[in-house]
Design brief:
Length: 531
């Protein structure tokens, strides 16, 4: 009986302390007049995300619309770390641009011990190491370097057309799940532009590069989900066990692919306009530095012209160099293939858009008189840019952009409302919510490229249209991504009419995914040859 009373008393004390801690936590924000969600909210949401009960879009939209429109921020907790969602685009811009010095880093998801390639990629690096790597890589993504790579991408576009035309002749009208199909095209682009190898993943479907790339960029599988959960709640135990987040076999294959190519080029003095060559040049300090180039690949291009990246003398290790190729693989294989497939879907289910786009593409092709499309001409195609820009509005590659405070500091949130930020406090910028807010984009569910026409695009607040991020820590590869998107779409629409089938989900619904924004039932289209 005494033990039972003691046990009840202990449980009661734990519950009491939990509620006391909850009151103490929420008081940090409520005392400032800031709406705050229960400290248990994020844990519950994370569990629902990992078990596919909700998707990241559902979670972000739920928080975004929980408070009245005039409320500019809302807070919640990740364990003992507060997260402040900045609902107002001007407030968000202030933090990631004007206060960038204090909010330059992303929250670290994985340690170097758990995944050396992911942890050393540009997207995960912090503080001075991030600045040095960004400085090293920045000259590799300028417009002049993109011009050199464009021909490589055009070759893949023509290879894709040949495959589809052969399929049509041999098998008749074909239906494709566009994400699966275009992931192979995107892999071939990465293989040639990053690693200097030619891989025909449409014909040679089980080639080593595609299989390894798919395994390394699949972050939603049950195996990696369980590993992430273990690391999230028991980091020291997970690392002590020797567990690795990425599959070891594929990681080793990928590392060898990059390092062997670099050694071969050095030994044989091979020069090719791709990412490995640019990284070799960067290692030697031969890439030009200074003001970013004000070169626009389209409306969505991130402007780096105002950023002064200083040359660094840091010597990078083999792992750190390979990690940047790994990041390029992840972005090119997953993010670009998703954007490509969403673009083809919207073209297919909007015949008026497709017809107008085809007219522009055909006109350009006629003017080329048999010559290949190039970087300069792609940049001048206005309606193609409008279509791609609207796709990136409706389907951004990520639902949120996060930043982490790097020191204790008191900052004004807005209108003389101050908050004491502690080191490791996080802020979230709800990109998806901005892009789908009817206040900024009327009738947001409608695919309407005219939003980005010459007559209308000046109405768009640049702080609410941020498909490639905002501030100095934006996406370094925006020019490359837009160039690839436009080139592949150009070749597809020129040669094929994209048509929905009985399998095509209309209207499209989003999957309950943990990270990337993806469709619920796939993106099915049939490709009818225009010849």
């Amino acid at each position: 009986m005494i033990w039972l009373i003691f046990l009840v008393a202990v449980v009661a004390l734990i519950v009491y302390r939990m509620f006391q801690n909850e009151k103490e936590k929420t008081a940090v924000f409520t005392s400032k007049g800031i709406k705050v969600k229960s400290p248990q909210f994020f844990k519950i949401s994370l569990f629902k995300l990992l078990t596919r009960q909700i998707g990241i879009v559902d979670m972000v939209q739920g928080v975004y619309y929980e408070v009245p429109e005039n409320e500019k921020v809302i807070a919640f907790w990740d364990g003992n770390t507060p997260i402040i969602m900045l609902k107002d685009p001007d407030v968000a811009k202030n933090f990631v641009v004007k206060q960038f010095e204090h909010f330059q880093d992303r929250k670290k998801l994985l340690s170097e011990e758990f995944d050396p390639l992911f942890a050393n990629s540009l997207i995960m690096l912090k503080e001075q190491k991030w600045r040095d790597m960004r400085s090293t890589l920045s000259p590799a993504f300028t417009g002049s370097k993109m011009r050199q790579m464009c021909d490589l991408i055009v070759e893949i576009g023509l290879q894709m057309v040949d495959y589809l035309q052969t399929e049509a002749k041999e098998k008749g009208l074909q239906t494709y799940e566009m994400k699966q199909f275009l992931s192979r095209v995107a892999l071939d682009v990465i293989a040639t532009c990053a690693f200097g190898i030619k891989v025909d993943s449409l014909t040679n479907r089980d080639n080593e590069v595609y299989v390894a790339g798919k395994a390394l960029t699949n972050f939603s599988g049950i195996g990696r989900t369980l590993k992430f959960m273990l690391y999230k709640f028991f980091p020291k135990l997970t690392i002590a066990s020797g567990m690795q987040f990425s599959p070891v076999k594929e990681s080793n294959f990928f590392r060898s692919l990059v390092t062997d190519s670099m050694k071969h080029r050095e030994q044989h003095n091979i020069i090719r306009p791709d990412m490995i060559h640019l990284l070799l040049e960067a290692q030697k300090g031969k890439l030009s530095y200074g003001q970013g180039e004000k070169d626009s690949t389209g409306f969505a291009t991130v402007d780096d012209s105002s950023v002064q990246w200083k040359k660094t003398e840091r010597k990078w290790t083999e792992t750190e160099i390979v990690a940047q190729c790994f990041a390029f693989l992840g972005a090119g294989f997953e993010s670009i293939s998703a954007s490509l497939s969403f673009t083809t879907y919207e073209i297919g289910v909007n015949p008026d858009v497709q017809e107008k786009l085809f007219e522009e593409i055909k006109s350009v092709n006629d003017e080329l008189k048999g010559e290949r499309i190039n970087y300069e001409i792609l940049k001048k195609m206005k309606y193609l840019d409008m279509v791609v820009s609207e796709t990136l509005r409706k389907y951004p590659s990520t639902a949120i952009l996060d930043r982490e405070c790097n020191k204790d500091i008191t900052l004004e949130l807005y209108e003389n409302k101050e908050l004491d930020f502690k080191k490791n406090y996080s802020i979230w910028i709800p990109i998806y919510s901005f892009h789908w807010d009817p206040k900024y984009f009327p009738n947001p569910q409608k695919f309407d490229p005219e939003r980005f026409s010459e007559e209308n695009k000046h109405k768009i607040n640049p702080s609410v249209y941020v498909p490639f991020g905002v501030g100095p820590r934006n996406c370094i590869g925006s020019r490359f991504a837009l160039m690839e998107l436009k080139s592949i779409i150009y070749h597809l629409v020129l040669h094929f009419k994209l048509e929905p089938t009985a399998e095509t989900q209309i209207p499209l619904k989003m999957a309950k995914s943990f990270g990337a924004i993806e469709s619920e039932r796939g993106l099915y289209l049939q490709l009818r040859s225009r010849n």
